[in-house]
Design brief:
single chain; about 210 residues; mainly alpha; Tetracycline Repressor, domain 2; about 0% strand; elongated
């Protein structure tokens, strides 16, 4: 097995174990057993399990940032309505979390209570999600599509909390009997928030009034 393939296998096995058993109960020996490699081999790539965990978190954040940036670039802001843009951002976020249930579980649930630098990495991810939302809200206010009397920081926390809590409940490592329909969930979120967020102009453009 080539070096990069072995490293990827270690990370994939660790991801599943961290998601299932949590950070504290997962040991290097468990990861080695799951990957079917010698314990010493893991130390050739990672100093300890903290570094493995942090690598997973960093990779996840980079993937989210890249995914959202690339898909946002595909949108023609001159043609899409503000409401449809908001809907597309919600849908893409839910789809991203649904795409890797193990990592989502680590970020959204298992990561709570981890020590020091690991908690900081998770917090950084949450802050970047907030910044991403606040940037869109400010753009919407500037363009006259979002109400200018909204508290941007509070509203961003409200939206992020809604989406992240939904993801943490439905996108854990174990599939529920009835999987979440992300399209319907997106529409439900839109129906709940849209009239409180958007100006009359934006609602008219979307055909909602």
């Amino acid at each position: 097995m080539r070096s990069e393939e072995r490293k990827k296998k270690i990370l994939n096995c660790a991801k599943r174990l961290f998601s299932k058993n949590g950070f504290y109960k997962t040991q290097i020996s468990d990861i080695a057993k799951a990957a079917k490699i010698a314990r010493g081999t893991i130390y050739q790539y990672f100093e300890n399990k903290d570094i493995i965990y942090m690598t997973l978190l960093d990779d996840y954040y980079k993937a989210w940032q890249e995914d959202m940036t690339m898909k946002k670039a595909d949108i023609d802001l001159e043609k899409i309505t503000a409401v449809d843009f908001f809907k597309s951002q919600i849908r893409k976020t839910l789809d991203f979390f649904a795409n890797d249930r193990y990592l989502s579980n680590i970020i959204l649930r298992v990561g709570l209570g981890v020590p020091g630098d690991l908690a900081t990495t998770i917090k950084r991810f949450e802050l970047h999600v907030l910044e991403f939302i606040m940037r869109d809200l400010r753009f919407g206010i500037k363009s006259g599509n979002i109400r200018d009397d909204l508290n941007v920081e509070f509203t961003a926390n409200l939206l992020a909390g809604s989406v992240l809590r939904t993801a943490s409940y439905y996108f854990g490592p174990y599939k529920r009997k009835k999987p979440l329909d992300t399209e319907k969930a997106t529409q439900d979120i839109i129906d709940i928030f849209v009239r409180g967020l958007f100006t009359e102009k934006a609602l008219q453009q979307a055909g909602l009034i």
